[in-house]
Amino acid sequence: MARAEEYSEIVRLPLGRRPLPPAGQADVWLIDLEELPLDTPGSGITRRQRIMQRRIRQRFFLRLLLSAYLGCPGKDIRLIRSARGKPALAGQHANTGLEFNLSHCGSWLAVAVATGVSVGIDIERERELVRVDRLAQRCLSAAEAQWLKQLDQPFRSHQFLHQWCAREALVKARGCGLAGMLTEMELGWNPAAIRRLPASWPGREHMGLTALSLPDGLIGQLASMNGALKARLRLVAAAAQPPET
C-alpha cells in the first residue's frame, strides 16, 4: 500500500456530496472491493462465486459514487451500455455532463469521473510476463516492440503493461474495441504518449493520456477525448475509521 501522502485525498465511507470535476481534470477513485462492508460470503467460496461477489460490490460502489456526484439515491440512477459495453448514464441524468469509466484488476476497482468529456481508464497488476517479446510484436507497433526488446526483465514487462494499459484506456474513451485497431496505433514510451491513432477515429488529434501513480503494484492509464487530464486520485478506505484514543 502506498503512503497516504501519495494521494490527493483518502476518503472514508460513506461518501458525502461531491462536486463534478472542473474542466481539464478527472477524479480517479480507487477501492479494494473486498474491504467494502457488505454482508457477502467469506471463505470457502468457489472462484465463480468470488467473481459474482466482486461484481455485486462493483455495482454497489459505482451507484454509491455516482449518487454522491448527482445528489440522488443510487436506486434512482439508470445505467445503459453501448454496443461495445461502455457504461453511461441514462434517463433523467443523461444530460448532467457527468462522464465515467471503470476498470478492475483482481479486487481493485478504479473509476474515472470527468465533466463533459469522454474518458477511459485501465489498470493492470505489475507482473513479469512470459513471452513478452511475442506479445509486443503482436500487440504493439514495430517501433515499440523494438524498443522493448532492448530492455531487461522485469522492466520490459513493466513497460509493456504501460503501453497496453494506454491502448485499453484510449479505446474505452473512444467507446470502441481493440479488434482491428492495434496495427493503426503507435505510442511513444516512458511515459506512453500518442503518436498515431486510427484514421477512422474522429477527433483523434485531441485525445490525451495521463499515467497514474497507483498503490499495491498496480499500473494505470487515463485517456480523454479532449487532451491529457490532470488526475486527482482518491483512495477509498472502506473499513470503518478506528476510534480516537
How much of the polypeptide forms β-strand, as a percent range?
25-35%
- Rg from alpha-carbon coordinates: 19 Å
Order of strands, widest sheet:
1-12-2-6-5
Mean pLDDT: 90
* Largest sheet report: 5 strands, mixed
Query: How many strand units?
Result: 12
Shape: globular
Spans where pLDDT lies below 50 across 5 or more residues: 1-5, 241-245
Distance between the termini: 24 Å
User: How would you classify the helix and strand content by structural class?
Assistant: alpha+beta
Q: What is the overall number of helices? A: 4
Kindly state the percentage of residues in helix.
Answer: 10-25%
Order of helices and strands: EEHEEEEEHHHEEEEE
Q: Can you give a write-up of this model?
A:
By secondary structure, the chain is α+β, with helices and mostly antiparallel strands. Helix content is 24%, strand content 29%. The strands form 4 sheets. It has a 5-stranded mixed beta sheet with strand order 1-12-2-6-5, covered by helices on one side. A 3-stranded antiparallel beta sheet has the order 7-11-10. Strands 3-4 form a two-stranded antiparallel sheet. It has helices at residues 47-70, 132-139, 142-149, 155-174; strands at 9-12, 25-32, 78-81, 87-90, 98-105, 108-115, 119-125, 186-188, 193-196, 208-213, 218-224, 230-237. Mean pLDDT is 90; it is low at 1-5 and 241-245. The chain starts with 8 loop residues before the first strand and ends in an 8-residue tail after the last strand. The chain has 4 helices and 12 strands, in the order E-E-H-E-E-E-E-E-H-H-H-E-E-E-E-E.
